Amino acid sequence: MPSRRFADGEVVMGRWPGSVLYYEVQVTSYDDVSHLYTVKYKDGTELALKESDIRSQSSFKHRKSQSSSSSPSRRSTSRSRSRSPGRPGKGRRRSSSQSREHRDDKKKIIQETSLDLLVLVLFKPSENNTRRYNGEPDSTERNDTSRVISEQKLKPDLQIERVIEQYSLRPRKEEKKKEEVYSEKKVFETIKTIEKASSKTKDLEFGGRIGTFTLIFFLPAAVFYLLLMCKQDDPSLMNFPPPLPPLESLWEARVFGVFLLWFFLQALFYLLPIGKVVEGLPLSNGRKLHYRINGFYAFVLTAAVIGTLLYFQFELHYLYDHFMQFAVSAAAFSMVLSIYLYIRSLKAPQEELAPGGNSGYFIYDFFTGHELNPRIGSFDLKYFCELRPGLMGWVVINLAMLLAEMKIHNQSMPSLSMILVNSFQLLYVVDALWNEEAVLTTMDITHDGFGFMLAFGDLVWVPFVYSLQAFYLVGHPTAISWPVAAAITILNCIGYYIFRSANSQKNNFRRNPGDPKLAYLKFIPTATGKGLLVTGWWGFVRHPNYLGDIIMALAWSLPCGFNHILPYFYVIYFICLLVHREARDEHHCKQKYGLAWERYCQRVPYRIFPYIY
């Protein structure tokens, strides 16, 4: 078994596939089976190269020094050989200067003669101009024409072209520069062609084309099924299927208008020139997009609008009475938005396409998102939908369910279970908006395109499925004692503490690894320049933020009691979602960090649940 020559992290010179050009690369990993090195170029491109295509930097520097040192010696040798030792130095210098002047005069005569010929060739009379006033040419024109013809007979076209090239008025340095630019352009075009071919998404997720096609229909059906089950008196899984309402009752133009009003109100708040502007992570072309961080301000303005409506006796429980119609309106809008996003992505440049949504298959790219950051001017559609209309809509729906519970059951105060659900989920949303900048480093922003998956998830799944516990409590009130409420609150606080402290630890380390406050953290260096934390929360499990998420999801469902499993659907879904995301993260990190990630996995063996998984 051949031993590897280059170590991980070593900076070497790697040959670009299909060319003879070598570029500076960094070795990230080595495959013992295929004997291929995974290297990373300066622009972030990662390729697998054979050992024969990799050379050390010292060999390049040694060759360069040899060539530069040998040239002067050869020139000095040739000069020494051409000297005549029998001639005196003074006379030799005089004869040399005379011969140089003679050569210069001769060269000048040749150049002038050839330039005269060049002028005659370039400005020879055409057939239409040889006759003046429909008559014969005069003697001068006739002599010039015969001279040109005779010269053309003496010199073929190829020789004339050589003369033109040899005595071009442009300097030779300029010609060489043009040749170098042309060769660089050809190499650049070749690289772009290779990158375009290699940028296609090869590893298809969600079951590929068949799986994504199924999910386009399954996800809306799952939302409507959950909402219909919550409306039943006995929301048991044995009562399947639930009674379906008339189709005409699922659509109402007024409800759709209210949804559009909500969406564009949030868009208006997003465009307000308040809050700081930050840069996102570098894109594949090195460019960084700018984002305005004003989500928390938008939440405050939204709260002011809702408070004003309640002050003027607006019936907010209208959301509960038309909950299914609102879900249908949101689903229809997300589908129209997804179609628009896919159509516009067809004209997007190659570097603006999503790494995970560029498979070339219509259904797959439509579902996962073909374009990474679709924007209308400075309005980022994906970033806007990620936190604004759906996440804030979740809080408004919870509030509407609380008011509906009080009205339906003639209560002067909401139930303790409803207060806990609203409080826990309000804390989660406010935390997300307060730490809005952290979302710029998530896979939703950096990797996933904006297609049906995120559009439906942000506008339908988040507000209408995440509010399932509050919707359930309206029709199925559950009484809990204060000690139980206190225990559930403690559980939620534990989950939130793990979630927030883990994310803050990661974000602070990414922003400034040299911060003295983080000196206690140990990490494994990687070829990308980033470090993998092996102490703190990230040395406890690989995804401590997911662990905090699951604990909080359980605390949100416990106020609903144990009569039915339906309120715990969110916990089951959340576990499945996070396990899927964890698998995606594992695959992505293994490709990105190579052997460093394998060492990290050996150091931190548990993924989400300590001592279990």
TrEMBL record:
The keyword Nucleus applies. The gene is Lbr. Residues 76-95 have a biased composition (Basic residues). Residues 99-108 have a biased composition (Basic and acidic residues). GO terms for biological process: cholesterol biosynthetic process. Pathway: Steroid biosynthesis; cholesterol biosynthesis. PANTHER family: DELTA(14)-STEROL REDUCTASE, DELTA(14)-STEROL REDUCTASE LBR. Its EC number is 1.3.1.70. The chain crosses the membrane at residues 206-228, 253-272, 293-312, 324-343, 454-474, 480-499, 520-541, 561-580. Residues 4-62 form the Tudor domain. It is found in: Cytoplasm; Endoplasmic reticulum membrane; Nucleus inner membrane. InterPro entries: ERG24_DHCR-like, Lamin-B_rcpt_of_tudor, Sterol_reductase_CS, Tudor. This is Delta(14)-sterol reductase LBR. GO terms for cellular component: endoplasmic reticulum membrane; nuclear inner membrane. It catalyses: 5alpha-cholest-8,14-dien-3beta-ol + NADPH + H(+) = 5alpha-cholest-8-en-3beta-ol + NADP(+); 4,4-dimethyl-8,14-cholestadien-3beta-ol + NADPH + H(+) = 4,4-dimethyl-5alpha-cholest-8-en-3beta-ol + NADP(+); 4,4-dimethyl-5alpha-cholesta-8,24-dien-3beta-ol + NADP(+) = 4,4-dimethyl-5alpha-cholesta-8,14,24-trien-3beta-ol + NADPH + H(+). One of its GO terms (molecular function) is DNA binding. The lineage of its organism: Eukaryota, Metazoa, Chordata, Craniata, Vertebrata. Its main location: cytoplasm.
